[in-house]
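Run log // design_07
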């Protein structure tokens, strides 16, 4: 059988075109992910700088001012310093658990950004169970902290890991009940649908006004999940030296702080999505579509406006947890558990029953 030379060239060119298409497909698949990772990194650096500046203002002292203009590069300098420091391992600890623990804490929170909408249809994965996927994934982070505490072969570290697990379990249930109430109001668990359900009446359509009790419970529970003061029992210096991160040094020590600020950022983004209307502005959707047509804008300009509005609401809300850290004292462990099990859980359950009843009567 004789094959023509032109046919061979056509087959080769076709195979090359297929390879190029697959290559470009992989690139276009990675571009959104890398963009989100870069944005998350910059967001964490901004939060660290904001916290240092706000805490300096509260305590009437000068914040960072030497590393870059207004000290904006101070967090980057600290991360670089930790990157080049030596990683020490406990002599009698479990090296594998000791190394894997910080990675699990960071990766589990990074995956949560998959379902966060930054603008109209601007989300990596629009899932029907988006908010509950966030809760399920974020519950993996305390396992990494427990592994770190156990692998350190240090009683203070192990107690810190146990406290982190107990605290997470205590406050995840009220948090989930609040999210379930929002899902009932929006008739969906998709983050995109929840934001769009709030856009009809503008500022007055936000779930903040329809779920004020749920918002307060969600705020307290998210602070406890992020281990922010007054809920930083897992790393209480007076009792546990530094908790689960006592034996860590170098970049592994820095990963715990990255996980903490990532968790704070994703919690603030979900507060914006669930209660503050997401990327929608204050004006009702009817007037926006008639006069400004912002929701109809497409392309880069429309996406930029959505991202700007979402991040503005997120960083305005961040003033609450940052200010709380420097104003309230730390709770005792029994007070923390009593607050979660005896107060927040019954109130969130009652809020869910009230929301369910109102939805049934409205049918």
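design_07 sequence
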């Amino acid at each position: 059988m004789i094959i023509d030379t032109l046919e061979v060239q056509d087959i080769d060119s076709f195979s090359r075109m297929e390879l190029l298409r697959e290559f470009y497909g992989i690139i276009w698949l990675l571009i959104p992910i890398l963009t989100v990772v870069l944005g998350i990194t910059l967001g964490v650096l901004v939060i660290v700088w904001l916290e240092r500046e706000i805490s300096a203002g509260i305590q009437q002292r000068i914040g960072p001012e030497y590393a870059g203009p207004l000290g904006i590069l101070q967090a980057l300098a600290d991360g670089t310093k930790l990157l080049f420091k030596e990683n020490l391992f406990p002599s009698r600890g479990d090296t594998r658990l000791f190394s894997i623990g910080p990675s699990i804490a960071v990766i589990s929170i990074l995956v949560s950004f998959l379902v966060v909408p930054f603008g109209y249809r601007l989300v990596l994965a629009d899932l029907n169970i988006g908010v509950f996927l966030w809760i399920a994934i974020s519950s993996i982070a305390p396992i990494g902290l427990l592994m770190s505490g156990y692998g350190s072969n240090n009683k203070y570290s192990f107690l810190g890991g146990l406290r982190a697990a107990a605290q997470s379990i205590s406050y995840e249930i009220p948090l989930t009940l609040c999210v379930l109430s929002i899902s009932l109001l929006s008739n969906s668990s998709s983050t995109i649908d929840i934001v769009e359900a709030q856009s009809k009446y503008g500022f007055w359509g936000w779930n903040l006004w329809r779920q004020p009790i749920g918002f307060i419970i969600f705020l307290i529970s998210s602070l406890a999940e992020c281990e922010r003061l007054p809920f930083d029992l897992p790393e209480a210096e007076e009792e546990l030296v530094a908790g689960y991160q006592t034996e860590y040094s170098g970049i592994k020590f820095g990963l715990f702080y990255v996980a903490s600020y990532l968790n704070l950022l994703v919690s603030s983004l979900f507060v914006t999505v669930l209660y503050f209307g997401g990327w929608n502005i204050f004006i009702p959707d009817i007037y926006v579509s008639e006069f400004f047509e912002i929701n109809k804008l497409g392309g880069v300009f429309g996406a930029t406006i959505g991202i700007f509005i979402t991040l503005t609401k997120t960083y305005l809300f961040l003033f609450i947890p940052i200010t709380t850290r420097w104003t309230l004292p730390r709770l005792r462990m029994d007070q923390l558990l009593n607050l979660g099990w005896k107060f927040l859980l019954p109130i969130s359950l009652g809020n869910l029953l009230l929301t369910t009843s109102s939805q049934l009567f409205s049918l």
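The chain has 15 helices and no strands.
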